[in-house]
Amino acid sequence: MSTYKEFKNTDGILITPQQASQLDDYKEIAFENNRIKKSINYWDKEVQNIDIYIYPDEDLNTELSKLDNNLTYTIAKDLEIINGYKVWKFYEYKNGVLGPLILTEVIDINNRCVAYKSEESSVSIRKVYYLEGKHVVNVEEELDFVYEEDDEIFFDFENGNLTINVSHNVAEGNFTNINLFYGTYYERLPFMTPEILAYFTNPEPLVPPMQL
């Protein structure tokens, strides 16, 4: 069995163990046989939460029996592969008891979360359009740039209402009107097809029907 760990800062960027040791807030991710098995979030150098991943070829009760009943975990299980995306269901595990579903998460081939649905108190959905590495060339408008590592657009649904938050190196903005958002940014988003726009501006389906 091969095991290794990765460390990420709060922006989700890979860092070295030495860099992590100098931070108060970071994530430690443990892998077994190239599959994520545990994710620990640290806040002020203290453990904030622990996610444990249990795969369909593993026995749930056996894996749960390995955990410390004095700690609270989030258990990821019921893995499905839909349209090439990994879909995980997350449940609270506390005092040896597995609780109800609290979160559904959709992961792309680059291990990025492209969508999640929280069901802890009220249902909320977030979809993330990653812009990193996308090159925009528009001679007529004299646009020529490449999106940077943490450039992204967030589509948040709360009580049926959509908020779009644009965060990138060229411009930022916050919108509740789809037409205003697209009218403002369409020249900088030539790769956002009508199908992709429709996916991100509607709460369902949670799993993209296309590769983003």
Can you give me a brief rundown of this structure?
The protein has 212 residues and is mostly beta strands.
Any chance you could write out the topology, listing elements then pairs?
Elements: E1 3-8, E2 14-15, H1 17-21, E3 26-32, E4 35-43, E5 46-53, H2 60-65, E6 73-82, E7 85-94, E8 97-107, E9 113-118, E10 124-130, E11 135-138, E12 143-146, E13 152-158, E14 161-167, E15 172-175, H3 178-185, H4 194-200
Parallel strand pairs: 5-6
Antiparallel strand pairs: 1-2, 1-3, 3-4, 4-5, 6-7, 7-8, 8-9, 9-10, 10-13, 11-12, 13-14, 14-15
Protein name: DUF4178 domain-containing protein
Explain what the structure shows.
The structure is a single chain. With 212 residues, the chain is mainly beta. It has a domain at 129-206. Helix content is 12%, strand content 48%. It has 4 helices and 15 strands. It has helices at 17-21, 60-65, 178-185, 194-200, and strands at residues 3-8, 14-15, 26-32, 35-43, 46-53, 73-82, 85-94, 97-107, 113-118, 124-130, 135-138, 143-146, 152-158, 161-167, 172-175. Strands 2-1-3-4-5-6-7-8-9-10-13-14-15 form a 13-stranded mixed beta sheet. Strands 11-12 form a two-stranded antiparallel sheet. This is DUF4178 domain-containing protein.
